[in-house]
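Workshop exercise sheet. Pairs work together: one partner reads the sequence aloud, the other fills in the structure field after running the prediction. Swap roles for the next sheet.
Pair: D.N. / O.F.
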Amino acid sequence: MADWHALSTMYDEPESLEEFSLEIVKDWLSVGLDPERSTLFLQSAVLEHSELFVLLSMITPLSWLERVPSYKEVREQLAHKDLATLGFLGYPLLQTADIIIYRADFVPVGIDQLPHLELAREIVRRFNHMYVSEGGEIFPEPMHLLTEAPKVPGTDGRKMSKSYDNAIFLKDSSDQVWEKLRPMVTDPARVRRTDPGDPDKCPVYDLHVFFTPDDRRSEAAEGCRTAGIGCVDCKKILFDELEKTLAPIREKRLVFEDRPDLAREILGEGSARARRECTKTMEAVRTAVQLLSLEE
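Structure field:
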């Protein structure tokens, strides 16, 4: 649960951070993540992340961070916030520390995160070149893992994000989901109901790729191209299929709503487990960087 990352844009509203963190854990549990198999932990509870972040900041050129595409993009999208901060600029560097401290070989990401992962590999190469360890290179270069649908569009066509206020949440009721889908942007060429459209230019169809079976998705695409169905009809098909996925998640989530301390307990146990792994990595890092050890 990347609460430090959340603070990079939520620094002026910290009162919502705790609830935000616990709600995300409930989402994870609701979709089937098993704490026995997946270590669910709180970023700020594993201080080794911040230590590695500081050490990486000593060798990372400022220009590397300024050229990350999302730096300017998000600042433009969130122009109402003052994001001219070191924390926001260093977001991908902290993300690098999050990844490599576990010596990850592969990272499941969305396509928008590929520049961040390329930066992580550059930083790893620089670190491994500058600091030699007796056991060989400390960090592997992390590679990406993409799904068949590597980008989830929001209701306005941009990347789905809580910060952009364009997200459908797992805990949203059926009515809330429809109220978000109903005004969703579509192919701008479909000005009138009788105008044919292009599914490949429609964010609604992008969501069909995730949730709609091939036969119904083909039906929606053909109806769009021939103006056989309207955009509202297309959205209703998506809504029906989306509900097949979200309804069971929503129902399972009720179980965790009745156990308010469970998410906190899981984060506590997972953070202790993560900390043990990070300790091993940071011992090797401190030795390689030749920091003075006060232990006899």
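Discussion prompt: The CA atoms of residues 283 and 293 lie 10 Å apart. What would you look at next?
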